[in-house]
Amino acid sequence: MRKNVLLLATVLTGSSVRASAQGVASSAPITDIRYEVTFTRANGARRQVASAMTFTVGGTEPVLLSLPAWTPGAYEIANFARDVLNFSAEQAGTSLAWDKIDPDTWRIRPRGVGEVTVRFDYLADSLDNANTWARPDFLLFNGTNLFPYPEGKGFDFPSSVTVNTDAGWKIVTGMTAAGPHRYAASNYHDLVDMPFFVGQFDLDSTQISGTWVRFATYPSGSVTGGARVAVWEALKLVIPAEIKVFGEVPWTTYSVMQITDPAYGGGSGLEHQNSHVDVVGPGMLGTPVLPSLYAHEIFHAWNVKRLRPSDLWPYRYDQEQPTPLLWISEGITDYYADLAEVRGGVVDANGFYVMTSDKMSEVSSLPPTALEDASLSTWIHPRDGTEYIYYPKGSLAGFLIDIMIRDASDNHSSLDDVMRTLYSAAYKNGRGFTSDEWWSTVNKVARGKSFADFYARYIDGRQPFPYDRVLLLAGLRLARDTVHVPQLGISSLQDSTGVHVTEVIPESSAAAAGVRPGDPLISVAGLNADDPNWTDKFRARYARQPEGTALPIIVRRNGAEQTLTARLHFVTRVDSRLIEDARASSRARRVRDGLLRGTTTP
Ligand SMILES: [Zn+2]
Predict the structure, then answer these.
(1) Which of the four, 151, 205, 323, 553, has the lowest number of CB atoms within 10 Å?
(2) Cα 13 from Cα 381, distance rounded (Å)
(3) Ligand 1: distance of its center to the CA of 299 in Å?
(4) Model confidence over 91-133: pLDDT tens digits?
């Protein structure tokens, strides 16, 4: 998963309620499981999709069917059962009695041996890559939303999916085709890890590193001409650089599935074993954020979908599955996204330094938070700004560990060796990896160098990273600039209903002016709030104005526009820029070049 924050706008997330099937009860055995999804123009108009599940029972014992509470990769409880409508069950043409035994588990009472069909409609109005979203001519769905599983029976059952849709409409999914509009999965984990696009959208494909890659984009025409060529160019550069880390391609066909919608304020990707789904606002198209997002999500095909912390192996779907190692699964994935870009040639070394410096600035602006604690806490979305700190901070941890391994081994080994070793030791043996295994592999690859102190201070602990000491080992250093920047103290988000204030920093000038979270925002200091660049323009326009200058903020309250007056306020910030050290030793230059090129000294 990656959520990009666009300017000061934040991505909306639903409220999370922790409630789920507890797994004590167990369903009667069911066999020959088939799912059927129906999505036509009529469904699109209603923004509902129909799901049916048919299976065979051996008697009258109750069947317990659960819907997942979350989609792996999107670490939040979403309770998909909330979106179920018109639930029914039938056997041989007559309806069956059913009730619920917990918020997302249905108990169905068969009348005897034979085939049972369960049906429901699902509300498809959530523009979220972990959920289901319909337009008049298009549907995104995840199996976690539409495919119930028998409670307490494990996830190793095979099943098939048939999609009924209008003539001429396309279907894209990572699932294996088993007939016209029919797909098969050998187990439930694979079934729900392969989302679908159904309807009218653009689709093309090409071969990269000997495998097929597809690019599906909705709405039709959203990524065309030069923009589409640029996406393909970026994919052709980053994918081979990522394959080189692990030495193998884990998919036969990979699908990049992208939705562009003006109601989406930022950009977000959700990874799967042979696809990923991006949801982006139009403002993201053509920006450097997109290649970076693709590189991140595709790297997940190895790191987290296959090489996965043991706390997440196997996935369970009925409750939270916290791990202290998400900084490896997400943060180090983000480090490799940057590496894939520089190693593939999407950006040059300076581009890599800028991305890394930005991560340093982001981390330094947030409360000191241990990577392990942040990894565990993400499920409850902490509201102190650290909700996603394990991305940039975990990325920087990977960067520092990589440098230390390369230095300790005189660039004979690297973090790539750690990834490759664990991939083979854990994933290839059908299991997850533990924290002990991670650190013992780092230690071994670094020729016996101890990371115990590093772990205690910077991963388990909250001490600021030792940038100066470690960067030196890679012929890099930080140039620090002290800057004074105007700060208003509000975050805003644009959605289909307009721009709203999402957050007001306490004691800020916006707070003093009376701006409140939820206020519809019309303009700020003469800048239209629906301009996606208003925050940058604000900082530029007021950089040299005197402190205390009046700033009119227009909000809408009770149907009328109201002008509040804030006072210009400056904050002092130390910006760090990662630069090359002109006095770097030849050993340090070997480390730097090896890291940027993805090479070690033979
Ligand atoms: Zn991710």
Answers:
(1) 205
(2) 9
(3) 9
(4) 999 999 999 999 999 999 999 999 999 999 999 999 999 999 9
